[in-house]
Amino acid sequence: MIEVKGISKSYGPIEALRDVSFGIAAGEIVGLLGPNGAGKTTTIKILTGNLQPDDGFVEVNGLDVLEHTREVQAQIGYLPETAPLYPELTVQGYLRMMSELRDIPEQDRVARISEAVYATGLAEHLTRPIGELSKGFRQRVGLAQAIIHKPRLLILDEPTIGLDPTQIVEVRHLIRRLARESTVLLSTHILSEVEALCDRVIVLINGRIRADAELSELASTADAILVLGRETSGVEEALLDLDGVEGVDFVQPVADSREPSPFPAYRVLGSGLDADLCPRIYDRARREGWPVRELRQDVRTLESVFNELATGS
Ligand code: ATP
Fold first, then answer.
1. Range(s) of the domain holding residue 288
2. Ligand 1 cavity residues, CB under 6 Å
3. How far apart are CA 17 and CA 77, in angstroms?
4. What would the pLDDT profile of 27-41 be if each residue is shown by its tens digit?
5. Do residues 129 and 247 share a domain?
6. Please, is 209 exposed, middle or buried when counting C-beta atoms within 10 Å of its C-beta (0-12, 13-18, 19+)?
7. Cα 37 to ligand 1 centre (Å)
8. Any idea what the CATH number is for the domain that residue 179 is in?
């Protein structure tokens, strides 16, 4: 659906994007995640034909965005970081104006507006001026204009920024519903947003892609944690001897206690992402008669992965 190839963009001396490439298939919900200033908005502006890259190109459904800007924009629903809403217009008036700007044939306009209003839960607010609505409802109006022309691709820039926790839940719920009909790319600097909504995440840091993976894949690890009941000799050597083990770290488990636990623990580092080392470790422990207290696969949180990427560790 989207093919981004080697885009770079500088604003004077600031290199906002450097050789960014990724693809998004139809039906995916993809999160573009990155800290402030990472280049998310710049990427989205280029994708939607609102900014020209210095290098590289973007295709949407096989059409080059710069050569076929209007045709591409007709296929995209775009919610900018700050949607250009007109506070003095009523919800209905604004959506009517947007349906005209989107070249929706006159005979279809009422039906399209009704569908967008229904999808975004705005029916009771149709006659209210936009300026009188709460932030959450203004965001819904932004989403309604983004879907009014039934786009196949929805691009949302920080869709929940500035909303309160209840509004965030509502808007996320709404995005999930809209995603049944469209491919979605959303930018955010909030990890939980990606976890709540996306199948896949592209991590952008300092204008470069640092990761592009399914969420489950990114957080998965082949490492295992082994905790013994007392100090036992020869454990490290025996673990290193196992197939698929790349290294062994001795760790002090702190668990929930403030004091380091007295039990010796080992993080066994696996060499492949999908290998489960626990059965092999369990067999060895049984043969050697180790006093095993705990044996489990190590699980990384998305937060720790993100921090590792952000700090380059
Ligand atoms: P945020 O989460 O804070 O919105 P972002 O990931 O969307 O950040 P961008 O807005 O794309 O990041 O900005 C990337 C870099 O380019 C930043 O260093 C920013 O200061 C710079 N930048 C963006 N727009 C301009 C501009 N019009 N002129 C000069 N520099 C700009």
1. 222-297
2. 11, 14, 16, 34, 36-42, 189
3. 23
4. 899 999 988 899 999
5. no
6. buried
7. 5
8. 3.40.50.300
